[in-house]
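We close this part of the discussion by returning to an individual protein. Part of our work consisted of pairing the sequence of a single chain with a tokenised description of its backbone. No coordinates are needed to read the tokens, only the vocabulary itself. The amino acid sequence and the backbone structure tokens for this protein are reproduced below:
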Amino acid sequence: MNFENNLISGVFIKRYKRFFVDVKINNETVVAHCPNTGSMLGLLREGNKVWLTKTNNPKRKLKYTLQIIEVNGSKVGVNTHLTNKIVLDALQNNNIKEFGKNFEIKPEVKFGENTRFDFLITKKNYKAFIEVKNVTLSRNSGIAEFPDAITSRGTKHINELLKASRKGYKIFIVYVIQRDDCKNFVIADDIDTKYSNLLSKAVKKKLNIICYDCKFSLKGIKLNNKIKYKIK
């Protein structure tokens, strides 16, 4: 997955109104769009190095978009709008080994009355729904965690995946760890106990969990290494 334009480096100042961040580029302070509605726990430290992109769209009010924050020397991708693109790129290039090869990919597929899953992949005698989750939190060295805040949406998706399983679909959650410094993944039970408990029950009912970290370059972000996970 490549960025729209070249990355521009800056220094983080503050976030406010959820979608706005102040960033210093050289000696100028700019207001950039923050494409992440989560808490971004542990990332928003004044003085952190950041990378942004500048839009080509002359009609857009905010010309800059926050893409990456560096924390303790490690890069963290914060643009949740890119997560599905990262996974789509990996699927198209057969880089998620759990799905094999030669399958058809459909994004944003409706299921039931009020649900859309991120991807449906199909091949002969096989159909699977994939829900994608973006992971940025790491409170302990080398350990990625999800979620970083209570996620009623995430709980809903687990319940809907279980319904799909009962209708003959294989079901997956792909946790995309937009970091390059974690070797393990866990669920943040203390942040959202309900999500943690439901996920544990769902795994026993054939919900498949896949975790990958990411590789960063000046051009873009790609899935990289498969990460070990622990579900209670």
About this structure: Residues 185 and 229 are 4 Å apart (CA to CA). Residues 80-230 form a domain with the Trna Endonuclease; Chain: A, domain 1 fold (CATH 3.40.1350.60).
